[in-house]
Amino acid sequence: YPEVTLDYRRELKEFMISHLSNRQITSFQRLSRRTLGQFGQGLIPPIQPGSVPEKSIRLACVAVDTSASITDEVLTELMANVNEIREQTGCRLYLIFCDYSITTEYEIQPEDDFLNLIQSGFIQAKGGGGTSFIPAQERMLNLGRKGIDDMDVGLYLTDGYGDWLDREEFPLANRLVWVLTPDTSWVDSNGNPTSEGPNYGK
Predict the structure, then answer these.
(1) Using an 8 Å Cβ cutoff, are 83 and 114 in contact?
(2) 182 Cβ contact partners less than 8 Å away, ≥ 6 residues apart
(3) pLDDT of 120-158, one tens digit each?
(4) What is the pTM of this model?
(5) pLDDT tens digit string along 150-195?
C-alpha cells in the first residue's frame, strides 16, 4: 500500500520521468541509398529494423484535493516539483482541482509559463468542501472523450480522506502516484485513520 512520506521528491520525480520520457520504439525502414546501391537490378531491398525515439508529447495529469487541509505551502511546493519535471520532459500537463466534485481544470502546453500562470492567479485552486477522489479519477480515464490523449502518468495530492475507485474500475492504476500531505494518513469511510489506502498506485 502507499506509504506516508515527508520527503517524496526523489521518488516522485523518478516515477513521473520514467513514464514521461520518450521511449525507443522499433521502426522498420528501408536501407539508405548508399546501401541500396550495393544491390543489383531486380533485387528487392530488405527492410531494416531499427530503434528510433518516439516523438509524441506525453501527458501528465495532476489532481489536487482542495479540502481545507491542503495548505498553500504544500501546494506551492508540489507545483514547483511538477514544473521541474514538466520542463525536464517537455510534457503537457492536465491539472484538476477537486473536492467532492471537480471545481476547476486546466490544460497546460509545454510552451506555457506554468508557474507564472499560478502566480498571476490565472490558475486557481477552488474548493474546500468534502472529498472524493472518484470524479478526478474518472476524468483521468475519460480525457480521450474531451479530445485529449490518455494520460501517461497521474499524480494525486491529498490528505488521504476520501473514497476512491476500486482497482478493477481504474485500469490506469500502474500509472498513478499518490502524494499524501505531511502528518496525514489514509482515512476510512468512518473517519478512522488506516494504513490501508488504495491497493494500487505508488
Answers:
(1) yes
(2) 6, 74
(3) 888 888 877 677 899 999 999 988 777 677 888 999 988
(4) 0.76
(5) 888 999 988 888 889 999 999 999 999 998 877 777 776 667 777 6
